[in-house]
Amino acid sequence: MRRTLKWLLALFALPALLVLAVAAAAWWLVGTQSGLAWALGEAAERSEGRLEVGRVQGTLLGGFSIEELRVKTDAAIVQARELSARLDLIALSTATLAVKGLEEEGLQASHVAVELLATEPKGGTAAPPARLGVPLPVEIPKVRIAGVSVRRGADAYALTELRFSYSGNATEHRLHDVTAQTPWGNVALEATMGAAAPFRVEARGSLERPEGRANAYVRVQPFAAQKLEALQLDAENLDLSRFQASLPSTSLTVQLSGEATREALFAGTLRAANGTPGALDRNRVPVVALDAALALQDETLQIRALDALAAGGRVSGSGRLERTGA
Which residue, among 215, 220, 219, has the nearest Cα to 205 in the 3D structure? Predict the structure, then answer.
């Protein structure tokens, strides 16, 4: 009887010990700095040189910082400095990967450098992937990156105060509340991308400068031969003289809208109005309003049904512009 009781106790104790062992291993992984360092080290070792991780402090549970993180792909090299974040284990318990910050802001980095690599696909155009979804929902709110530099060959660009939130799942990726200070002005953006073919991207944003404000909507298929599907652009209060002193003074409102067709890469309409028309010798533009139908075919821009209202009368006609030279 005693021997039977011992076997029963051992039988029930074994699963409990296994649970305790798994719990202890999980706690070591998420609750200790050595566990975090081991996990990142394993990821770097298995990446075949594509991931490099600098000095790490903190834990997954309480928050961590990485001095430098470097990721290399066939298309780009990304380096992030002074990265700080933490995992939301409550969200993880509901099968959602949520990455937050050490404070209210969310995930943060002092600087991210992106080098875009000029790569040519082998054997012609590379086939698009089957899917681009993530296996479980991902939430990364309130990201703040103090500085971003992007380089492609001799061209280089810099952004400051980049902020955004990201969410993704098996069917869609979404960027929202995107703001940044760029060399061209202050940018705000919302964008989505499908995780399955045709991987349609829709984006809506604005660019604000002292010279005026522009709003845009674009819909594209990034892996298609004809990428652009639709485009809408409107700008208001544009003063050309603020772009360059030698240009005349204007107060332009511009609207451009159109879409791709079977015959044209882009076909649409252009409407413009000038709130401050005047004579050229007074540093003004004598055009009050302009309407035109446009069609872009290969290297040729067809201008159809041009109708312009000038200070001295009305002008109508059509024409074409062709790109020539190398």
Answer: 215
pLDDT, mean of residues 126-146: 83
Helix segments in the chain, DSSP class H: 2-31, 33-46, 89-92, 240-243
Residue 264, pLDDT > 80, answer yes
| Residue in the block written with tokens 């899917």 | 131
- What is the reported pLDDT for 93? 67
Could you identify the residue written with the tokens 């041009």?
Answer: 306
Asked whether 234 and 214 are in contact (CB, 8 A), the reply is yes
Angle made by CA atoms 184, 245, 149, in degrees to the nearest 5: 20
Cα–Cα dist 41/51, whole Å: 9
Q: What is the mean pLDDT of residues 112-126?
A: 70
Mean pLDDT value across the chain: 84
DSSP label of 97: E
Which of 23, 22, 42 is closest to 34 using CA atoms? 42
Please classify residue 250 by burial: count the beta carbons closer than 10 Å to its beta carbon, then call 0-12 exposed, 13-18 middle and 19+ buried: buried
Looking at per-residue pLDDT, the higher value among 260 and 298 belongs to 260
Secondary structure E strands in the chain: 51-53, 56-59, 63-72, 76-87, 97-100, 108-116, 138-152, 155-168, 172-182, 185-194, 201-209, 212-220, 228-238, 252-259, 266-274, 287-297, 300-310, 313-322
Strand partners, 316: 307
Contact 205, 188 (CB under 8 A): yes
What is residue 8's predicted lDDT score, i.e. its pLDDT?
47
